Amino acid sequence: MKVIAAFLAVSVSSAAAQTVINYEDGSTYTLSEHQEVYISTPRSALFKRRIYANKNTYFIAQPPWSQRDYVQQPTDGLEVGSHEWCKVYIPWSEGLTFNMQAWNRYCDTNGDGVYDEMDDPWNE
Fold first, then answer.
1. C-beta atoms surrounding 96 within 10 Å
2. How far apart are CA 90 and CA 101, in angstroms?
3. pTM of the model
4. What DSSP string describes 60-93?
5. Strand partners of residue 49
6. What is the mean pLDDT of the segment spanning 14-22?
7. What pLDDT score was predicted for residue 12?
């Protein structure tokens, strides 16, 4: 019975998951229910196969997908880990995020939970 319950829990949670592609420029694309992901490199193109009514088969290079759901908005101009960024960042304001981890690594170098003159990057 426990095995069946565990299987159902895993199958239900995986069925509700969405696939999101994160691009280097900060934009994202969320796949719809019946879309699939195929990966190619710049040196090896991905091809579509077309079969015509006269039984001719053509392979056509697939262009890279250009659609995006979200395009990153302009930032405040502060570089993560810089002295200015460390001064204005509020620890734990977003929960445990990549920004919080960066603050712990680059700003709070003495581990006391406060960014002040006792930390290495402080330069005032």
1. 9
2. 12
3. 0.43
4. EEPPPP---SB-PPP--SPPTTSHHHHHH--TTS
5. 59
6. 73
7. 47
